[in-house]
């Protein structure tokens, strides 16, 4: 009984330390953990920087930080949301241009041979 | 109590502690959501600064750039702007573009290496200079004045007196002085403004299809939105941080937060999150007979007083 009480007391102290007193410190985070408005702004900046730099590979690499398999997906999703929310037409146009460029540069899936 | 028993109890306590820490640090650590750029890894932080600077080159929106770079370490900003200037210079970009980057640095109060100071001097124009001096609206620059004159710092917003020489490069031995302090045409979210902010308006928003949220608008004395202001939403056991101006289509001073039902929120501003509004809870909106219940959102207007 006393042993169990000591075990529980130790565990309670551990939880208190681990969650409140000394929680896991997050530094060195990645863009995909950003607050939604920062995340949206990150995507807008990637599209804007693409207009200045004309570097599609770099834009794709940046978007891969948000979605490694489908880098265009967050872009397309943001365009939809901005259009629905009445976002900046300039931003939407930039996002669309980058989206078009990414889709145009993506290799088309090879059609399966007919049997 | 024997010493063996004491040791067993101590071991039980330590085992419990280890289990507790294992659970909270490894199995179920504090959830990581809603971070902000200053917490990112240094290479991502640098890229964020680079993206903000490139975006500023594209749209010349100083307020938006300020909001994007809010909270970033000045050394990082200085380093990245320096690298970008170097890169754009090597690429043969026009001086006007490079100058814009230095204006951004100065507006943010970021020191750049002295080698970029030439970008502030007026470049000799290949076209003939006008007979009378034209007042310039460039907010920051260095002015070249004749050595014989006593250098005096004047605001760039004041047009030059008619007795000024027609060309600022007319003197054979020029002296270059910095035109400080920096003047920008738009308000700066300085600590004095933050300390004077007070809630002046609190409106319940009742709109179907709108997720419950709390939106805050920061304005200056003239009613213009102020970007780059840190706004905190605090509640028991949690906090969320946002910076005004990241949704420019909603106004320079706009920021919003998702909100939950029956949670008492406080709203604060600045690095310390000084609370300006307390015990703010979402409220149901009045609805007609047979209509589904609707939770309202809050619109809070903060202005200096």
Summarize the structure in words:
The complex is a heterodimer of chains A (115) and B (305). Chain A has a domain at 31-105. In chain A, 68% of the residues lie in helices and 0% in strands. Chain A is built from 5 helices and no strands. Chain B folds into 3 domains: 1-29; 38-121 and 136-178, no CATH class; 191-304, Immunoglobulin-like, CATH 2.60.40. Chain B has 6 helices and 12 strands. Classes of the chains: A mainly alpha (115), B alpha+beta (305). At the A-B interface, helix 1 and helix 2 of A face helix 1, helix 2 and strand 6 of B.
Anisotropy-based shape of chain A: elongated
Mean pLDDT of chain A: 87
Number of domains of chain B: 3
What is the oligomer described by this structure?
heterodimer
Number of helices of chain B: 6
Low-confidence stretches of chain A: none
Calculate the terminal CA-CA distance of chain A, rounded to whole Å.
73 Å
Helix content of chain A: 55-70%
Calculate Rg of chain A over CA atoms: 23 Å
Spatial strand arrangement across the major sheet of chain B: 3-12-4-7
- Structural classification of chain B: alpha+beta
Report the biggest beta sheet of chain B as strand number plus sense, adding barrel if it closes. Answer: 4 strands, mixed
First-residue to last-residue Cα separation of chain B = 68 Å
The tally of beta strands of chain B, per DSSP, is 12
Shape of chain B: flat
Mean pLDDT of chain B: 76
Q: Would you tell me the structural class of the helices and strands of chain A?
A: mainly alpha
Unreliable spans of chain B are 122-184
The percentage helix of chain B is: 25-40%
Beta-strand residue percentage of chain A:
under 5%
Most extensive chain contact?
A-B, 49 and 50 residues
């Amino acid at each position: 009984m006393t042993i169990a009480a000591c075990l529980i007391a130790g565990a309670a102290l551990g939880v208190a330390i681990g969650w409140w007193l000394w929680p896991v410190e997050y530094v060195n985070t990645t863009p995909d953990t950003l607050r939604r408005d920062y995340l949206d702004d990150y995507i807008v900046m990637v599209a804007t920087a693409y207009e200045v730099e004309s570097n599609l590979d770099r834009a794709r690499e940046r978007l891969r930080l948000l979605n490694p398999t489908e880098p265009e997906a967050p872009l397309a999703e943001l365009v939809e949301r901005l259009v629905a929310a009445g976002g900046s037409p300039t931003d939407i146009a930039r996002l669309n241009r980058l989206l078009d460029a990414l889709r145009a540069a993506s290799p088309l899936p090879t059609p399966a041979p007919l049997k | 109590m024997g010493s063996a028993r004491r040791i067993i109890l101590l071991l039980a306590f330590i085992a419990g502690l280890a289990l507790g820490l294992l659970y909270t640090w490894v199995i179920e650590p504090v959830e990581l959501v809603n971070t902000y750029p200053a917490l990112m890894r240094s290479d991502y932080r640098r890229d964020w600064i680079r993206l903000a600077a490139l975006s500023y080159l594209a749209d010349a929106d100083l307020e938006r750039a300020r909001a994007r770079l809010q909270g970033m370490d000045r050394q990082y900003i200085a380093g990245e702007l320096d690298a970008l200037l170097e890169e754009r210079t090597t690429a043969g970009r026009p001086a006007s573009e490079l100058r814009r980057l230095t204006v951004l640095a100065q507006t943010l109060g970021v020191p750049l290496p002295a080698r970029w100071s030439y970008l502030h001097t007026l470049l000799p124009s290949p076209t003939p200079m006008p007979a009378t001096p034209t007042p310039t609206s460039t907010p920051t620059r260095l002015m070249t004045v004749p050595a014989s004159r006593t250098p005096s710092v004047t605001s760039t917003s004041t047009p030059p007196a008619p007795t000024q020489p027609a060309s600022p490069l007319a003197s054979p031995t020029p002296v270059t002085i910095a035109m400080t302090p920096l003047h920008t045409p738009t308000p700066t979210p300085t600590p004095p403004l933050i300390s004077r902010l007070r809630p002046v308006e609190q409106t319940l928003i009742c709109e179907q299809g709108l997720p419950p949220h709390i939106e805050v608008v920061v304005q200056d004395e003239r009613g213009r939105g102020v970007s780059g202001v840190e706004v905190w939403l605090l509640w028991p056991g949690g906090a969320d941080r946002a910076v005004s101006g990241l949704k420019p289509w909603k106004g320079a001073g706009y920021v919003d937060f998702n909100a939950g039902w029956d949670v008492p929120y406080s709203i604060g501003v600045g690095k310390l999150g000084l609370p300006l509004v307390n015990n703010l809870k979402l409220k149901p909106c009045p609805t007609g007979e047979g209509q589904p219940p609707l939770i309202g959102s809050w619109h809070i207007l903060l202005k200096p007083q």
